[in-house]
Amino acid sequence: MGLFGFLKKEKKEYHFLMDKNSNYLARGSAETDRESGSIQFKVLDGNAEEILKAEIVQVVPADKTESVTMGKAVSRRANTVNIEPMRDMGMGVRKNFRMPVDFESFIYPSGGGRYIIKSIDLSCGGIAFYSVASLSAGEETEVVIPITADGPLIVRCAILRVIPFSPPIQKYACQFVDLIPDEEEVIREAVFSVQLAQIRSGGARR
User: What is the tens place of the pLDDT at every residue in 89-120?
Assistant: First the structure.
């Protein structure tokens, strides 16, 4: 289908624009498919000037069946930015969009019990948090994600890394396991919702 092939669809979809480090820049819609190969994106949330400053951007279709495209922001006019496609980044890159989040929730380790956690960041592929729970790399636990649109979501995750912090508190990096497509979509929407909220409040990470 080629780069930006999603534009061939009749239905107009939203797209998230990220910098090369997967930090959120804006949400927009593709307005035209120009013969030159560059695409005009109308910015709906965010700052068009920040997209131009970032120069290299990732275009993430809201449609989870479409792959991510790397592009170059070459010009802007008001809230419209011209982006030239560079390469298709595939589907797996979606899991790397990690956003700082700040909430308290719970985990349920496989050995039993319930522990409070303090979140650090969240992505479509995993979560990092602080906890007094004693967990080991490779261990699986259930974690409650409380910021999803339809209420708390409980998913399984595996501990990837245990990072000493301030005893008895430890820092954990975890990867989600056995997610069904609907759960992955809900988590992705939660990540992007956090990004949108931070852009609107002026507190997005750069």
Answer: 876 666 666 777 889 999 999 889 999 999 99
Rounded distance between C-alpha atoms, residue 193 and residue 188, angstroms: 9
Decide whether 5-93 matches 98-200 in CATH topology. Answer: yes
pTM greater than the 0.70 cutoff: no
User: Does the domain made of 5-93 have the CATH classification 2.60.40?
Assistant: no
Does the domain at 98-200 match CATH 2.40.10.220? Answer given as yes
